[in-house]
Amino acid sequence: MNKDRPYSALVQRLKAAGLRPTRQRLALAKLLFEPQSGGDRHITAEQLHAEAVAGAVRVSLATVYNSLHQFTGAGLLREVVVEPGRSYFDTNVSDHHHFYFEDGGRLQDIPGEQVHLEGLPTPPEGTRVARIDVIVRLSDGESEAS
Amino acid sequence: MNKDRPYSALVQRLKAAGLRPTRQRLALAKLLFEPQSGGDRHITAEQLHAEAVAGAVRVSLATVYNSLHQFTGAGLLREVVVEPGRSYFDTNVSDHHHFYFEDGGRLQDIPGEQVHLEGLPTPPEGTRVARIDVIVRLSDGESEAS
DNA sequence: ATTCCACATTAGAATTATTCTAAATTATTG
DNA sequence: CAATAATTTAGAATAATTCTAATGTGGAAT
């Protein structure tokens, strides 16, 4: 009784991205993009896999990795690298930046509109700017200047 | 005939950092910080280990990792994370940013003075900004706007 | 509907970067 | 020079991710 109504919006998104709307991709997309379960999220492959398993979705870790990379390639996700040996995937693909809480390893979005970056040199000949990442690393402790 | 004159400047740097100037730390520091061999460098543990071995320095990979982390903790190096699963160590610890060439995986410094970042929100209560990383990711191909 | 086939999924092995462990070595201090 | 504590080391262990080869599945064509 929940097999008959496909999540049409998600199906469309996947199709538009050239990805077959398979059972597992749909389930993962739902976890990632449906507002009630997610909204803006920063999630690792392991975490998403755990969520899927907890939600009675049968999907392998390999498929979670495959899907995350395919979604990223299709512009549905953005990969954020903050620490060596662990990748976060961000469901917010609009232009924005991040706070990173070093104690705890959590990420938080900083809207892109309010931040202005000036004085960057022009990229070398033959290259173009694919993306600019700004990561503000935070530690526990009050800032010193009063 | 090169054992008697210690690289006093490096010895001092290590001592000042609370690290014993051992044979291997000294050799690694030389590779990292001596202008002729290095200057501003972005290097991985594996690369540094290979250089050491090539230079007839007997040092284990574990010690290279240990030393890199100790140097980083002491403020002699800065760790730069650009891609999952690989850490670069930057011998330039002054305030600056990076170009990252996605095709090829190379890093290049962008001097900090010329870049201005405005409109960042104040960090949440109880935290302070440890560092701000700006990574401009470059792909091959000319920028589209003429 | 059934068949077919390219695309997807999977379990488990393999790989890669890094960290850990416990023993051997070495720098420093007395 | 001996004692002590820090350091180094080889190799095992871990962690995240990717690969592989076999099996399963979506959807177009019949």
Give a verbal description of the structure.
Two copies of one chain form a homodimer. With 146 residues, chain A is of the alpha+beta class. Chain A folds into two domains: 71 residues, Winged helix-like DNA-binding domain superfamily/Winged helix DNA-binding domain (Arc Repressor Mutant, subunit A, Orthogonal Bundle); 48 residues, no CATH class. In chain A, helix 3 crosses helix 4. The model of chain A has no long low-confidence stretch (mean pLDDT 90). Chains A and B meet through strand 2, strand 6 and strand 7 of A and strand 2, strand 6 and strand 7 of B. Chain A binds a DNA duplex (30 and 30 nucleotides) through helix 2 and helix 4.
Category by helix and strand content of chain A: alpha+beta
Q: What is the arithmetic mean of pLDDT of chain A?
A: 90
CATH fold topology of the largest domain in chain A: Arc Repressor Mutant, subunit A
Helix percentage of chain A = 25-40%
Q: What coarse outline of chain A follows from CA principal-axis ratios?
A: globular
**β-sheet strand percentage of chain A:** 25-35%
Number of strands of chain A: 7
Uncertain segments of chain A are: none
